[in-house]
Design brief:
The structure holds two protein chains of two kinds. By secondary structure, chain A is an alpha/beta fold. Chain A contains 18 helices and six strands. Chain B is flat and about 65 Å long. Classes of the chains: A alpha/beta, B mainly alpha.
Chain lengths: ~475, ~100
């Protein structure tokens, strides 16, 4: 009787947690209320954890406490990483989420076997396959983002056939287990094959496609948590997993649309190779370059400036210098806005976080649809470390690999200035005709150094 | 062990919850501004770490050494996501500020 009452209280705590989780996401819709959302989420999670610790099934606390302490020791530093490291941190947290989900599924299998029904076996097998492949896939993604692993796509002939055969093998084992749930020696094989598939899935994907991959892995991790809820008949897991899964899914769709590509194309397209050949046909054309002094004079004379940041700004750690530039221009009465492409950087929203960290007010950060109509009235566009997202070939050249991708229409502005190390095409290898236009000035140099020089000219120059 | 019929019932129950929650998630998350997509991912990761409740039961119910070990690993992994996820989400959101009113 006591147990029943206890279970009811736990269920009640879970329902409150679910409500708070949904509110947390709802409040995230605006920066003004977003921090309430974090508080709601924390409160809901704490409530659910405390309720669970009181569950009568929990009879041994020693290892739980050790694990909670270890989790906190690992989690706190991961919560304090610098903003430039957020993409790899996110990939790591996907890996941890997948690890947890896979471990629980595996434990449940061994507790239940051989008294396991077909329903349960299907749920557990799916859950463990998705959890395992997300674990290794996320680790590879984190490695690429941390640049421990090469960022360029690693491809070989027949890759897709090999990868899909490995996935096929995992599914065959899962079906075999469903028919013969007692064949417990096959279960580890299924785990290993799924882990291998995760590696094969992410290795061929290049750094520039990371926003989509991270989002997709996010939705896999959510899906595995939801499936775990099915296995354990735990609705709080089903809801949290469904929320996480739909969030990852929405972000993946946004990222794919922003690149005008399909999921299959991102996952199996081996993007990097196609461009290598496209870049080979390149003709010599002249570009105009300018010094920091000239750039400063042009910016100082403008009345409306748009800055377009990309991954190169993050690599050069130039965001704080960019803030100084923003401050000086704003003080001169110049209207400065930032145009941010959805796939700029290495994860959804990456640029916004970096610029917000540098103290740039968020009402100055415009997404693509908001800023595109403003470019024709913009005097100067300053591009810092962005390339493909400004490439007009996406609109005009049907032969371009990025044809059809929505871009920031910077070529409609009066003057375009591009800070770039050299004329060599980026690793995607797509030539950018923008650089050869008459209105374009190339500013050759390191992003941080060059912006710093412009700032110095503007403060010292005395207009 | 629950019978086949009640297992089917559980599956359908969970499917209902999954479909409805997915729908709510879709409607709510669609409204999150692209400005906050990075904090969104950090927050959903932290919420997803609620799998820690399942891990706690497995680590604590003492059914076998294997399941205790797996459960404890899962508790550590999920709890690190929970702590780290909420922490970094809040850090990020604190950085988003509006322009100060212009002095004229």
């Amino acid at each position: 009787m006591n147990h029943i009452l206890q279970q009811q209280l736990i269920d009640l705590a879970y329902i409150v947690a679910i409500v708070l989780f949904i509110l947390a996401l709802k409040w995230l819709s605006s920066p003004a209320t977003a921090r309430h959302g974090v508080f709601a989420g924390e409160f809901g999670a704490a409530l659910a954890v405390i309720a669970t610790l009181c569950d009568y099934q929990v009879i041994e606390y020693k290892w739980i406490i050790v694990a909670l302490v270890v989790g906190a020791i690992v989690g706190i530093p991961l919560g304090l990483v610098p903003m430039t490291a957020v993409p790899q941190r996110t990939a790591m947290s996907h890996a941890f989420g997948a690890l947890a989900a896979a471990m629980i599924g595996i434990a449940e299998y061994y507790v239940r076997v051989p008294n396991i029904s077909k329903f349960e076996m299907v749920e557990i097998a799916l859950e463990v396959i998705i959890g395992s492949l997300s674990l290794t896939g996320s680790l590879i993604a984190a490695g690429k983002l941390q640049e421990v692993l090469p960022q360029r796509p690693i491809t070989y002939k027949g890759q897709n056939i090999v990868s899909l055969s490995v996935l096929g093998a995992a599914i065959v084992i899962a079906i075999w287990l469903m028919i013969h749930p007692g064949a417990r020696q096959l279960f580890p094989a299924m785990i290993v094959v799924s882990l291998v598939f995760g590696v094969l899935l992410v290795t061929p994907i290049g750094g520039a496609d990371m926003p989509t991959v991270i989002s997709l892995l996010n939705s896999y991790v959510g899906l595995s948590a939801a499936l775990l809820g099915f296995v354990l008949n735990n609705k709080v897991l089903v809801v949290a997993g469904a929320l996480d899964g739909s969030s990852g899914f929405i972000l993946s769709v946004i990222m794919c649309k922003a690149m005008n590509r399909s999921f299959t194309n991102v996952m199996f397209g081996a993007f990097g190779q196609v461009q290598a050949s496209a870049a080979a046909v390149k003709e010599e054309r002249t570009v105009r370059s300018a010094t920091a002094e000239e750039a400063a004079a042009i910016l100082g004379a403008a009345s409306k400036v748009a800055i377009v940041p990309g991954y190169g700004m993050a690599v050069a750690q130039a965001q704080h210098k960019v803030r100084e530039l923003f401050d000086i221009l704003t003080k001169k009465g110049i209207d400065v806005k930032f145009g941010i492409h959805p796939v700029a950087g290495r994860m959804p929203g990456h640029m916004n976080v970096l610029l917000a960290e540098a103290d740039i007010p968020y009402d100055r950060l415009m997404d693509m649809d908001a800023i595109n109509p403003e470019f024709p009235q913009t005097d100067v566009v300053l591009i810092i470390g962005a390339n493909d997202v400004t490439n007009p070939a996406a609109k005009t050249d049907q032969g371009s690999p990025i044809y059809g991708m929505p871009i920031l229409e910077v070529d409609k502005a009066r003057t375009v200035m591009v800070i770039k190390r050299s004329m060599s095409p980026g690793f995607a290898g797509i030539a950018n005709p923008l650089y050869y236009e008459d209105k374009t000035l190339m500013l050759f140099g390191d992003a941080k150094g060059f912006v710093g020089d412009i700032v110095r000219e503007l403060t010292g120059g005395g207009h | 062990m629950p019978s086949g019929a009640s297992q089917y019932g559980i599956l359908i129950d969970c499917l209902y919850v999954f479909v409805l929650a997915g729908f709510i998630g879709f409607e709510v998350i669609k409204r999150v501004s692209p400005l906050l997509h990075t904090p969104l991912m950090a927050l959903t990761n932290a919420l997803d770490a609620i799998v820690v409740v399942a891990a706690i039961i497995i680590a604590g119910r003492h059914s076998s050494t294997l399941s205790t070990v797996l459960g404890a690993v899962a508790v550590a992994a999920a709890f690190s996501n929970m702590v780290g996820g909420f922490l970094i989400t809040d850090r990020m959101l604190r950085m988003f500020k509006l322009s100060k009113p212009k002095k004229r």
